[in-house]
Structures are given as C-alpha cells and as structure tokens.
Amino acid sequence: MLGRSRGTGYNPIMIVPLPTVAPTAPKLALFDQPTESLRQWLDEHGQPPLRARQIRRWVLECRAQAFADMSDLPKKLREELEQSFDLFSTQVDRHLVSRDGTNKLLLRTHDQHLIECVLIPEEGRFTACISTQVGCAMGCVFCASGLNGVARNLTAGEILEQLVRLRNLTPPDRRLTHIVVMGIGEPLANLDNLLQALAVAGDKHGLGIGARHITISTVGLPAKIRRLADLGKQYHLAVSLHAPNDLLRTEIVPTNAQTGIPEILAAADYFFQTTGRQVTFEYVVLGGRNDQPIHARQLVNLLRGRKAHVNLIPWNAVSDLSFRRPRDEDLNGFIEHLRRHGVSVTVRRRKGADIDAACGQLRRERSQE
Questions:
Q1: Closest CA to 119 of 139, 97, 136
Q2: pLDDT band at 3 (very low <50, low <70, confident <90, very high)
Q3: What is the distance between the alpha carbons of residues 239 and 217, in angstroms, rounded to a whole number?
Q4: What CATH number did the domain enclosing 149 receive?
Q5: Is 282 one of the annotated active-site residues of the chain?
Q6: Domain range spanning residue 79?
Q7: Higher pLDDT residue, 1 or 322?
Q8: 79 and 182 share a domain?
Q9: Rounded CA gap, 361 and 316, in Å?
C-alpha cells in the first residue's frame, strides 16, 4: 500500500504489512548465546556438539526464519529449540521501502525499546547501517537519535540481529557487502558488544564481510579510538567532527567540552599511524551555523598535513529542531575552498529521504505516536 508523505499527494513508499504477534513467555535470545552455552544446552538435550554449527549455519548462511526451517535437524530438536529460544529477539515494528530501494526497519526489543537499521542498495553494493544503543548520550544538538538520551547498550546479539535481518532483505543470490556503524547510539561507548557482533559478521562461516568494508563512526572518544587502533583490525574510522573550532563544536556536540578537538585529532592520528587506514571526518552542514567561509578556512588549517578525508552531510530536517539545510551557494563555496587547498572532500548523497532513513527519525515519530 502507499504511505502519504508530509507534503501534498502520494509518494510511492511501500509500507510492508506486518502480522500481529501475541506476547509470549520470555525465551533465551539465540544470537546472544556463546557457542559453548549452546553446546551445553544441546548436551543436556542429548544432542551432539556439531548441532551448534548446524544451527548457526542455518541462521547465518541459509537465511532460516524459524527453527522449523532447519530441515537437517531432528523434528524433536526443532520443537525443543522453539520452546527454549527466540531465533530473533526483536520484532519488526515497521518496514519501510523507499523509492530508491532503501529499506528501513524499526525494531522493537524484548523490553519494548525501539531501534533502527537501514539497508542501502547502490551500484552492486548492499550496505547495512546499524545501531549500537537505545538512544544516545552524546547530545549532538542537530540529531534525532539523542533527543531523549540513552536507555541502554544493545547486546552483541541485538547488533548482529540487525545485520542478519538486513541481509535477509537482499536477493537470494546476493549478500551484504559493507557495514556502516552509524545508526542510533555512540558505537565506541558499546565497543565490547560491537566487536563481538562484528567478529561474527566478518567470519567466513558468518556473514563474510571483511574488516576493510566496515566503517565505525564515533563522535570522538579518544581512549576508545586508541583501543580500536591497537586491536590491529582494518576497520575504517569515521570521526563526527561537525565544527572546525572547540567553541562551536562544544555548542553542537556538548561532549566536546570533556575532550576537545586537539585530543580527538591526536587519537585519530594514532589510529592512522597504527593501522595505516585513512580517517574520515564527518561534518554535518548546518545552514548558517558551520558552513561559512571562515569555517572552511579553519577546517583547512585543522586538517593541513593530515592524510584525511572530509565527508560533508547536508542536514536532514528533524521536527522540533530549528536548524536548516545549507544554501547551495554556501555548500558549493565550502567544498571549493577545501578542494582548492588540497583537502579530499565528498558530499554524502541522500538516500531514503522519503522514509526518513536518517537515524532516529522513524523511532522518534513512532515513540510520539
């Protein structure tokens, strides 16, 4: 069916109808069970350890949607698994499909929180954008994700579930090619659980996504950036800078008062020196706030001599917030100044605009309902 846009007329947005699911007694979340715990459960039910590998293969490689789909398991075992475990601990509250093919899932956790994840198809790639927390404590003034603060971290299983659900939306002969950890929450504030989920995502018997195809975005937690660098992984790091001086950045990103740009840049330099991976600096462009010629000059001075890339993100409107998108002439002038002084820069193309694909918007709208 068609969903009405906020403007006049209809946009061809498909809202996938979802069945009503009656509440049931709580079960164990399968994705949060370590292999040893699953093997112990199987042993208690008279099953050999190899069943654990079979179960994970069905979910991670064969796209099983229910234990009943696992046809090479004994029927009795499938019934016992169904009684003890939730194959997926989240429920799909809403599934929106954009005109451009972007899919957005609003997921409801077992404790009735809402989180978002997005599948972005583009030029033969399928990119999953995932969340790491329920809400966000960073308080960026332009962002819908943190307007109500943070409730809790997501478990490793809840993070992995998002990837599996999004992978299951791709055609049967395709798979996820990239992951961007840029959804709701500050990823480095939940680093341990995130790393557990990414380890499964990167395994050849998991989702098979190489570390070089995974980007972790952070508002800038220096100690965690250094820890991430020391892991020796080839993850790509994106630092949400958003301003070229401490005074303005603290207004836009309040946690900057506890860190400061010099400390964040020093940690980013350490990441580059340790991993050899170029750091991307994300910069949400707020019309009239951080997009003027003086800001472009300051940003050039800040990044001079660094092997870095700037990703400009024109602001997506959020209800109840008074910011505006930059004027074309201001944005173009900003880009031209950076390029003229040797700074690598791109502008993020907007995807899924007709379904509020930017993180936090659908969750906020649903919560208000």
A1: 97
A2: very low
A3: 6
A4: 3.20.20.70
A5: no
A6: 28-86
A7: 322
A8: no
A9: 10
Average pLDDT on 217-240 reads 97
Predicted confidence at residue 368, as pLDDT, reads 56
Looking at the fold, whether 278 and 329 belong to one and the same domain comes out as yes
Residues 6+ away with beta carbon under 8 Å from 84: 27, 28, 41
Look up 329 and say whether it is catalytic: no
Residue 181 shares a structural domain with residue 69: no
Tokens of 104: 């957005």
Q: How far apart are CA 232 and CA 80, in angstroms?
A: 41
| Euclidean distance between CA atoms 216 and 288, whole angstroms | 28
pLDDT tens string 275-324? 999 999 999 999 999 999 999 999 999 999 999 999 999 987 776 777 88
Alpha carbon of 360 to those of 51, 79, 363: distances in Å?
A: 38, 37, 5
Average pLDDT of the chain, as a whole number = 90
Exactly one of 44, 61, 359, 369 is catalytic; name it.
359
pLDDT at 118 over 70: yes
Q: What angle (nearest 5°) sits at the alpha carbon of residue 218, between those of residues 213 and 224? A: 100
Which residue intervals of the chain are DSSP H helices? 35-44, 50-60, 75-84, 156-167, 191-202, 222-230, 246-252, 256-259, 261-275, 293-303, 328-340, 361-368
The residue annotated as part of the active site, out of 116, 158, 161, 282, is 116
Is 60 exceeded by the pLDDT of residue 6? no
Q: pLDDT for 294-305, tens place per residue?
A: 999 999 999 999
How many whole angstroms separate alpha carbon 328 and alpha carbon 330?
5
- Residue 234 φ then ψ, to 5°: -100, 30
Which is higher by pLDDT, 357 or 143? Answer: 143
Q: What is the CATH number of the domain that holds 62?
A: 1.10.150.530
Residue 122 in any domain: the answer is yes
Residues 6+ apart with CB under 8 A from 151: 113, 133, 134, 135
DSSP 49-112: THHHHHHHHHHHTS--SSGGG-TTS-HHHHHHHHHHEES-SSEEEEEEE-TTS-EEEEEE-TTS
Going 266 to 269 to 274 to 280, the CA torsion angle's sign is positive
